[in-house]
Specification:
The protein is an alpha/beta fold and about 290 residues long. It folds into two domains: about 150 residues, Oxidized Rhodanese, domain 1 (3-Layer(aba) Sandwich); about 120 residues, Oxidized Rhodanese, domain 1, CATH 3.40.250. Helix content is about 30%, strand content about 15%. GO terms for molecular function: thiosulfate-cyanide sulfurtransferase activity.
């Protein structure tokens, strides 16, 4: 019988000890994202496959967020349909008895895949705390070239409530109730009066700012201890009910979602469209400054 992973996070020491477990699937989810050039609102994205081919954790397969784990006609990193996700996850060797550990260079690509798996009904998944940078800083082994797992049949029942759609966020803004909206971007972005990152500057009205970068220990990139996370989220946790995280395009927001899960919150959603969708619709309000 497959045993569950210890928490939504596993340490590098845990992974090193379990790396040869036959039911374990290790995924590298690295993506590179660059902010728009001055005068443009177009972000550039680049697959991390070349980084993976140059060096990755032994046995790991590459999880391609750009081409396989996003909807090709849905916009920027839009969550894939359940059928598309199941095909991609099965191709990565994820079956009903698998355990999955996801890592990346920037941790929030790994939390994105963690969230997608959970949203598609698969819970036996964790993020490598500290990611590939911590793994290599500790002198742990790496290998080059492509590796893969035998294909499997992915089995999961989608949980649409783990994603908030535009209509839900509109209702929350209009009513001032129904969920706590959490902006995962930096305080500078949260209070911006000008932007070249999105169609319009500002934040979704009523949002609380919990910068996802503040959740990490700057020395090694691991998530801060639970008691420190609880203090960071104090304003959010004081508000009962549903929590909806957002950012620019639904990636960093999954880092806040993971932290809230660590803190015991069980009604958390990610607004997948985030500011790229919200700011592109001139009828939707924004708070600025």
């Amino acid at each position: 019988m497959t045993t569950s992973l210890p928490t939504p996070l596993v340490s590098t020491a845990w992974l090193a000890e379990h790396l040869d477990d036959p039911d374990l699937r290790v995924l590298d989810a690295t993506v590179h994202l660059a902010a728009p050039e001055p005068g443009s609102t177009q972000w550039s994205q680049r697959s991390g496959r070349d980084d993976y081919l140059a060096a990755h954790i032994p046995g790991a397969a590459f999880a391609d967020i750009i081409d396989d784990l996003s909807e090709p006609d849905g916009g920027w990193f839009t969550k894939p349909s359940p059928a598309r996700f199941a095909a991609a996850a099965g191709g990565l060797g994820i079956g009903p008895d698998s355990r999955v550990v996801v890592y990346s260079l920037d941790p929030f690509w790994a939390t994105r895949v963690w969230w997608l798996l959970r949203a598609n009904g698969f819970d036996n998944v964790a993020v490598l705390d500290g990611g590939f940078r911590k793994w290599t800083a500790e002198g742990r082994p790496t290998t080059a070239g492509a590796q893969s797992y035998p294909a499997a049949e992915f089995v999961g029942s989608p949980r649409p409530d783990l994603f908030a759609e535009l209509a839900e966020v509109e209702r929350v803004v209009e009513s001032g109730s129904g969920a706590c909206l959490i902006n995962s971007l930096s305080p500078q972005d949260h209070h911006a009066t000008q932007t070249n990152s999105y169609a319009r500057p500002g934040r979704i009205p009523g949002s609380v700012n919990v910068f996802v970068g503040a959740l990490l220990d700057p020395t090694d990139g691991t998530f801060k201890p639970v008691d420190e996370l609880r203090a960071i989220f104090a304003d959010v946790l004081a508000r009962p009910g549903r929590k909806v995280t957002y950012c620019g395009g639904g990636i960093a927001a999954t880092g806040d979602a993971l932290a809230l899960t660590l803190l015991g919150e069980d009604d958390v959603a990610v607004y997948d469209g985030s500011l790229r969708e919200w700011t592109s619709d001139p009828r939707l309000p924004l708070e600025v400054g």
